[in-house]
Design brief:
The complex is a heterodimer of chains A (about 190) and B (about 110).
Chain A lengths: L1 H9 L1 H6 L6 H6 L3 H6 L3 H10 L5 H45 L7 E3 L8 H10 L4 E3 L5 E4 L17 E5 L13 E5 L2
Chain B lengths: L1 H17 L5 H15 L5 H15 L5 H9 L7 H13 L6 H13 L1
Classes of the chains: A alpha+beta (about 190), B mainly alpha (about 110).
Chain lengths: ~190, ~110
């Protein structure tokens, strides 16, 4: 417990700043007092004023990591926004596919991108080799269908498709554990 | 201070090194180039056996290239190259081609 307390005491500045940014005092310690005027988080400044404590080397290391992480945080935000847009687009296209197939099948049709983290076409290949039906709708979305027990459906014929991957009858598994499957294209 | 600088520099260096230019689809292409250099007229069965073994040795289970090639073993022989190319291009988001792979696949089913 004492060790933990010592650590907290030692790196007081980091803990108070919540691993965000460095106070001017830290940059002063690095010999960059001019830059320090531009970045002056209150916590460390207060720490310096109240306790006369400057950040130590660990504090500074963490600060530098924080600086490196800043662009990452920004890009993560941008990526997040883009992902939301992509998700919305996929959801919209999926609704279109489900509407095309109609009830009762529509509830059992899913986007291939929801099944695995591969490119949708590769996921569709995988699904066909496992005994499922996957197809690309004219809107570009790759989808597949399951039954009420979430098993792949081998012989579903979609109403609207561009490319269809489906097992071939009679079902035949090769030595690599994959079923024989075929491709149909509407061109 | 030097230690800090060295640490930060090492982080950048390691991160740069981790992004090598070769992707898993190129690894599969190299496997087929190797198969082609050893034997130019393999049967379909032999081509699949050797390629799947090498792909499994060199690529992780979750690799898209491995998943694709394993799934494609069940597809019609005449479609295999185009299916793999299509998956590679969709994954890499650019044109991808492997003439050696195409030659090995096509010669395997034409000789069978």
């Amino acid at each position: 417990m004492k060790q933990a307390t010592d650590t907290i005491e030692k790196h007081n500045s980091v803990i108070k700043s919540g691993a965000s940014t460095l106070a001017s005092v830290g940059l002063d310690k690095l010999g960059k007092s001019t830059a320090s005027k531009l970045i002056a988080p209150a916590v460390w400044t207060i720490d310096f004023a109240a306790n006369n404590k400057k950040p130590d080397e660990l504090d500074i290391s963490l600060y530098i990591l924080g600086l490196l992480a800043w662009p990452a945080a920004v890009s993560a935000t941008v990526t997040g926004l883009m992902k939301s847009a992509v998700d919305d687009n996929t959801a919209m296209k999926l609704r279109e596919v489900q509407a095309a197939e109609g009830s009762p099948y529509s509830d059992y049709i899913f986007s291939c991108s929801s099944y695995a983290l591969h490119a949708p076409n590769i996921t569709a290949q995988k699904i066909a080799a496992l005994g499922g039906t996957a197809w690309q709708h004219p809107n570009g979305l790759w989808v597949f269908i399951v039954d009420a027990e979430e098993n792949f459906v081998m012989d579903y014929i979609p109403k609207n498709w561009n490319i269809l991957y489906q097992p071939i009858y009679p079902l035949e598994e090769n030595v690599y554990g994959k079923l024989r499957w075929g491709i149909k294209r509407k061109w | 201070m030097k230690v800090i600088f060295l640490f930060v520099f090492s982080c950048f260096f390691l991160s740069a090194c981790s992004k090598s230019g070769t992707n898993d689809f190129d690894v599969v292409c190299e496997i087929f180039a190797g198969i082609n250099s050893q034997s130019s007229d393999l049967s379909e069965e032999a081509m699949l056996r050797i390629s799947v073994r090498k792909v499994r040795e060199q690529l992780a289970v979750e690799s898209s290239a491995r998943v694709s090639w394993e799934a494609i073993t069940g597809a019609p022989a005449s479609e295999r190259y185009n299916l793999f190319k299509y998956g590679a291009e969709e994954t890499l988001n650019r044109n991808w081609d492997c003439p050696m792979m195409k030659v090995v696949i096509e010669s395997s089913y034409s000789s069978s």
